[in-house]
Each structure stands twice: as structure tokens, then as C-alpha cells.
């Protein structure tokens, strides 16, 4: 069995997540301005506490707010209500109550669905709001109270985003805007912690000390709206339970299969059980897939109530420390996250990254490449320190040992870091992006590895095309999957991007100036350019363009003629083709959704308020 389910080994890890710091977090902001950095654990604990104070309720529409608010506030005081819709356009409200006790009180007055034999009720923080038996009751909502968000997790439409980017003054502004408009927002984070809470509540019935921690881009500060949710289940002894005075010990169940990772190992066997639980007992979990033969076995599923794709594992606690490390680097300088977002978006646009696993680079190693670039010495100093430096500043309280004795010790409190060791250059985002491309256009990928531990290129230990050292397990290469061809493409694309930006510095602002030229998908560039010719007032509804009768009638295009008719016709045909593809894809997705829909228990709409 993996160390995960053995007792005691992770008490240090556990301790770091058990401290109730949320008040401290708020107090410190006001009472001690010299401490400008908040610890990752404080932020995580605040989010976990928020989730314990919250419930998610499915409703009929956003106008159910007053009735839901009135009904719930009979039982407990409400702090805020957030509205969102999932991918199937069903409506939900996340209610944050004043205290955790409030949630317990509300849960006590919940009912459950008893009608169908195939529906077994289960307690979890995901509920639905039944229509009142009689309509006599009226609820008063204080005039000061309204929804904190409406449609709170909608991803910004590309056309709107590109229009906003077009109207920016500088490329640095564009990069900042891209970050602000696409990063995972507050409600997105709340919902991810709600899913972790739900899994934890349900798994607790099987594992005495179950704690489910989000990690990866949901918490490391580099997540965009709609990013996947990486979760790890830990089952470590609490500090209280590990006291030497406790002589009565629960009998345990030893799992055959030993501690080895991958298929047949104990953690894979536990995941088989959890997979069945997700399928049978966890409301919202759908389309469960088991990837158990991997080095880190995982369960993949969709959470249809929280509109998130979930990856669940139970051995990868170092992933949480990795997220902490990334989060800290992102906090050290305000340029780190916008720069990383621009690079990630560019990589998607040129097809270097792809949501499916394969022989290409993924967002995580790409982020390490950005951090490594920012660790390079400049005339005025460093923007980011190396991990080695953070390790050298660590104290006793920073010691963390994860599974398989992985040492995850590094300085946690960034307030202790000497100011001259980070944020020491004046370059704006635009300059940094150009320098990023130039740096990697000249990087010796053949001989050198990228190591954020050292902050300087190190010798490659083997001949793999791309070598990016795993900061917490330095013997591992996080980009070992990348093929020779993909690495060549990476080199080519960074050179192209550098040329493109350099050429632009000399030229005048075109309709795809600055970041736009880098982040628009190559295939849609012609289309976007056409739509933008002569500026935004010329933008036409995409739908109008695709009406079939528009193609035969030339009168519609006459008012837009700055290009030749044949050019426009060609572009419109390309557009139609790409829309057809999108439509076909959507049809396929719809089919997939309805499959998912039939797999999960769907609440009858007419019963929901
Ligand atoms: N991870 C790792 N080693 C890898 C890949 C991933 O340690 N080779 C850890 C990292 O902490 C990473 C997390 O697992 O952040 C989740 O991986 P993944 O979902 O691939 O990346 P994210 O950072 O979450 O980015 P994305 O938004 O693409 O999901
Ligand atoms: Mg992820």
C-alpha cells in the first residue's frame, strides 16, 4: 500500500493544513502592513473554511434568489449568494452562511428524495430547492441584499476579449487585461473547494481521517476559468489522534498489492473503490474514468453540478507542495502571472499545448519555463530567486516530507526573504515577453536542462529532447513525454514569436497588433482580420455571416468593401468551413452531454424553484 494510507507519515503535511488562520489573514492585512505576503496555507485554510460555511443549491432560475434567500435565512444568517450556470445551463446558487454551525443547522432541515427505489439519498453540500407545497408563504429580502454574482463562472467570449485587447493602449496593458479577464475567479475557486469538501464529506465514511486537497492550477495562481480540478485524498493521523497517550487503536484493513504505484498497487485498488463511490454515491460526479496503470494512478470525472473536470489521486501529496511553490513564485512579483498567462495562451494558439495528453508540452512545464526565465540575472538584479535560495532560507517550521520521502522543505514565509533578492528590474510585461521568446530562441536545448532549483541552465543527464527538472524530485524530468518533433516545434515557435514581436516594434499598429497576433489561433486569423478591417464598428454578427443566402447575395458584402470580392468570398468560405466544424463538434458534445446526463440522477425541473 502506498504510504498514503499508512499511519503517521504525513502528520507534518497534515499539520500545515490544519491551522485555522483565516482570521489572522484578515487581521494581518490591516494590523501589520510590513508583512505583505500571505502564506499559501493561510489562503488554502481560508478557502476550506469558506467551503465549510457554504452550500450549493440548484434552483430554477436566477429569479429564485428572493425565495431561496428568504427560506434559508429563516434558519441561519446568510453572508452572500452567488449565482452560476453549469454547462447544461442549469441554474445554481452558492450560499455562504455566517458560520460553519449555520450550515449544520440548515442541513438538519433538509429533506431527501424518497420516491424512486433507484435513488438513494446522501448528505452532501450539493442540494436542490423544491417548489413550495402551497404558495402562501412570502419572503422578504432586505433591499441591501442582492446576488453577489449572476452567471458567475461564464468564460469570456473570445470575440469580446479580442475586441478589448484591440482597444488597449499598450501590449503590457493587453497582457494585464488577458490575465484579469481569463484567470480563475473567486466563484470558480469557491466551487472547486466545494467539490473537494463534498468528496471529503463522503469519503470520511470510509477513511477515518480523509482530507481532500485541491492542487494544481485551481490553487497555484496560474489557473484560468474552466481549468481542471486536481484533487488529492490524504488519510493521515491528526496531531490529536497521534498522541502517545491514546492506547486504544482502531483495527485496520491492510490492502493486498503492496505500496507500489500503478495498476495492482494499493493506491490503485483504493481508487477502484473510490471510482465506484463516485459513480454510485457522489451527486454530480459523472463519466468516471480510471487511469490506474500510471505512475500516479488517477480517477477522472466530470462534476456536472460544479461545472468542472476532476482528476483525483491519492498518493501525490508532493503535488500540493508543488502548487505552494508555484503560488509563492507567482506572489513574489506582479508580472509573473500575467506573463505566464500570455505564454500559455500563445502556446495554445500555436498548437504547442493541447488539452489531451500526448507527446507535447503541457501547461505545468511551460510555467516552469517562464519561472526559469525570470530567474535569470539582469543588470538590476533578479525578478525571482532560485528554489535553492528558498531552501537555504528555510527554518524548522518549513520542513515538509511527502510520500516516498520526497523532501519538500523550502521557506514558506516570503516576508522573510531579503527584498533585494526578487522583483529587481523595471522591465514592463511587453519587454519581458519579447525577452522570454529571445531567451528560448537561443537556449541550448541540446545540451542544457531547465532547472528552477538552480536558476541557471544545467547539464542534461540524458538525451531526451526537452529536459525540465522537477523542482521537488530533481531526478525526474517533467517534460519527459515531449518528443523530438514537438521540441523542434517549440524552438521554431519561440523564434517565430520573437521575430513577430521584434518586427512589430518597428512597424505601425495593425488590426492584430501586440498580443493579438500571438494568441489568435492561426486558422482563425484571416477571419478575425476580415472582421476587424477598419475597426470595431465594422464587426458583424458571426451568425449573420453564415446564413446560407448571404453567400449567394452580393449585396450584403458591398457595404464592407475594402478588400476585393474574391478575397472576402474566400475568407467567408473559410469561416463557414470552420463554423461547420465547430457546429459538428458542438453536436458531438451535446450527444456526449446527454449521455452524461442519463448517467447521473437528474432532478426533475418542474420541482425546482
Ligand atoms: N505535476 C507534477 N509533475 C508533472 C505534472 C504535474 O508535479 N509532470 C503537478 C503540478 O503540481 C501540477 C499538478 O500536478 O500543477 C497538476 O497537473 P496539471 O493538471 O497537468 O497542470 P496544472 O498546473 O493544473 O495546469 P492546467 O491548468 O493545465 O491543468
Ligand atoms: Mg490541472
TrEMBL record:
GO biological process annotation, one example: RNA 3'-end processing
Coiled coil regions in record: 568-595
Domain called PAP-associated: residue spans: 431-460
Cofactors required: Mn(2+); Mg(2+)
Gene Ontology molecular function terms on file: metal ion binding; poly(A) RNA polymerase activity
Pfam families: MTPAP-like_central, PAP_assoc
Start and end residues of each Poly(A) RNA polymerase mitochondrial-like central palm domain: 172-330
Keywords: Coiled coil, Magnesium, Metal-binding, Transferase
Protein name as annotated: Poly(A) RNA polymerase, mitochondrial
Taxonomy of the source species: Eukaryota, Metazoa, Ecdysozoa, Arthropoda, Hexapoda
